[in-house]
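Field reference: sequence -> structure
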Amino acid sequence: MVENRPVADALAHLVLLLGVLIVAFPVYITFIASTQTAEAIVQNVPMSLLPGDQLISNYTRALVGSNTQGGSNPPVAPMMTVSLITALVIAVGKIVISLLSAFAVVYFRFPGRSIVFWMIFVTLMLPVEVRILPTYKVVSDLGMLNTYAGLTVPLIASATATFLFRQFFLTVPDELVEAARIDGAGPLRFFWDVLLPLSRTSIAALFVIQFIYGWNQYLWPLLMTTSEDMYPVVMGIKRMITGGDAATEWNVVMATAILAMIPPALVVILMQKWFVKGLVDTEK
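Structure field:
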């Protein structure tokens, strides 16, 4: 029997609405600023909460770049392309390597299997920020600066994803393994026809997380790239915020910020069903 608790339901909805407003209001302010002129943003305090008439102009200037007396803003379209390629390679690479490593650790018998897994797991204590200098030295010696390989390869390995897939594979019934073996399926056939379909919700959830992780990278690209055509969009936003006497075109900066939010937001929206299912679904 479902209890009728109107007061509790109203309170829960009020809390959820308040949370949405707290999260969405800064995004709304960013969008409003992206439709104003730079003078309106700086001189009008407080800034108007109604959209301005510069939406098309500001977003066009953000995408193709602009030159003003205060300086120049680089075009955002190539930066978003770099960010998109980087995020996709990191997300897909992490999932593929983690699936294969977890499959090997769970289903293959070899000496030191547990030691290999714990060696992988211990790397959680060594994120990129901790090993950034030796990693940069290796990438530099290999001539991978200002390349997509340099931006993505050092970030592909993921102990977290390997651990999650390993724990999932351990819950797969042994009867499936025996049935596949009786049917004459080899290891790769079992992996492709049985494990991958069972893992699709976990793969979707990890893809969303890793795509956002790759899209938001800033520190590693900051070291890896010296050429403007390899800057991701996150670095582009920082470069637009000038210092000293140069005037920052905050309207173009805010338009760039909105553009940078769109791809990860679309990924979350389009894969929301699979993402939630991959996090909460326990059925095999």
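Note: Residues 76-107 form the longest helix (32 residues).
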